[in-house]
Amino acid sequence: FPSREDVLHYTVEIAKSGLKKQPKTLIVVGAYSIGKENVYLAISEALS
């Protein structure tokens, strides 16, 4: 499995790409083993 950092980086890049194409994109996160809070924070920090 990829590392947590790799998964978060990939997730952030996907979110940024989607928002660049469609600024009103709704990002829905469902995660179990990595922790939803980690994903939320990584996306939030990258977009701030």
Automatic annotation (TrEMBL):
<protein>
    <submittedName>
        <fullName>Uncharacterized protein</fullName>
    </submittedName>
</protein>
